[in-house]
Amino acid sequence: MKRLRILLLVHETLVPPEDLEGLPESAIEECRTEYNVMSTLANLGHDVRVLGVGDKIGELRRAVGDFKPDIVFNLLEEFSGIVTYDHYVVAYLELMRQPYTGCNPRGMMISRDKVLTKQVLTYHRILTPEFHLFPWRKGYKTPRRPKFPLIVKSATEDASFGISQASIVNDSARLRERVQFIHDQTRSDAIAEQYIDGRELYIGVLGNDRLQNFPVWELDFGTLSDVQAGIATRKVKWDPDYQRRHGIRTGVASDLSPALQTKLAALAKRIYRALHMSGYGRMDLRLQADGSVYVLEANANPNLTYGEDFAESAERSGIAYPALLNRIVTLGLNYQTEWRLFES
């Protein structure tokens, strides 16, 4: 790939240093993804400039005008502290006719909204857990004949925010209590969905029109008890000490028949297309003992940290980390946005 001008878009508190040497581990972990992407792109020979964004969209317009990047590498997960606003930043880039990496605004908007995702998947007859929605700032309404157990979480927040063992509820009293907790802690709608027992599987997808799957990945809950292993809490996903203590790890899913692997790969692509996603994504699934597969979430622009699930599964497919980032850049440059259609 030729040398490109790349504007790396990150949260204003996650602007990476030029060098990690001498930094405490906590500081390194905070901006590891941003540093990995920045340093790798620079080592590939690209001219990389980092822009930290908080709540001032004008800074982005000025940076694009001054630097004139060939592409914006988008690592934002929110705007102005609001998770569901990140797709507006990408839409703004489209209005400026500026190529960017990752998912398009429509795919981001649909996949970020758990309720809308479920409605779209249900329309396409793709299995997803049944759910009840509890809007924030509205009176609590007891659902009719809820099928316990249920798992209660935010309808918009991701990265397991607000999820713990207490998220699984088995009666109406605990359901109401947990819904109130989500409302208070996340200031967002709460969703209580049917708890699906089974193996937690992830499948990475790369592409715009022609899609590539990565190998099926599995979250191994290690030494956690059967009860604790029911859900991927924030500690399970993001606490390295907790992971080491309990032997929690992720890796290639074992003991899956070729037929089942083919079925899962086709399902991942079907989800990706149904939700209008582009660039790259990760599908979170639950495989039950009877072979049923339920879609838990579809993640646009998943974590790109070197050594984490998405990058590791790409590596297993023969795509090393530098090549993965180059592929993501190429997909962004080639994505057919509306303004490009009018230019052709």
Any descriptors?
single chain; about 350 residues; alpha+beta; Rossmann fold; six-stranded antiparallel β-sheet; 13 helices; 13 strands; about 40% helix
Structure notes:
This protein has 344 residues and is α+β, with helices and mostly antiparallel strands. It folds into three domains: 5-102 and 335-343, 3-Layer(aba) Sandwich (Rossmann fold); 130-194, Dna Ligase, domain 1 (2-Layer Sandwich); 197-318, ATP-grasp fold, B domain (D-amino Acid Aminotransferase, Chain A, domain 1, 2-Layer Sandwich). It is built from 13 helices and 13 strands. It has helices at residues 25-30, 32-43, 57-67, 86-95, 105-112, 114-123, 172-186, 234-238, 240-246, 258-274, 309-316, 321-334, 338-343, and strands spanning 5-11, 47-53, 71-74, 131-134, 150-154, 168-169, 190-194, 199-207, 211-213, 217-220, 249-252, 280-287, 293-300. The strands form three sheets. Strands 8, 9, 10, 11, 12 and 13 form a six-stranded antiparallel β-sheet that branches. A four-stranded antiparallel β-sheet has the order 4-7-5-6, with helices on one face. The chain has a three-stranded parallel β-sheet with strand order 2-1-3, with helices on both faces. A hairpin with a 3-residue loop joins strand 8 and strand 9 (211-213). The longest helix is centred in the last third of the chain and has 17 residues, at 258-274. The chain is globular and about 60 Å long.
Q: Tell me which CATH architecture of the largest domain applies here.
A: 2-Layer Sandwich
Q: Report helical residue fraction.
A: 25-40%
Q: Major sheet, described briefly?
A: 6 strands, antiparallel
CATH class of the largest domain: Alpha Beta
Distance between the termini: 24 Å
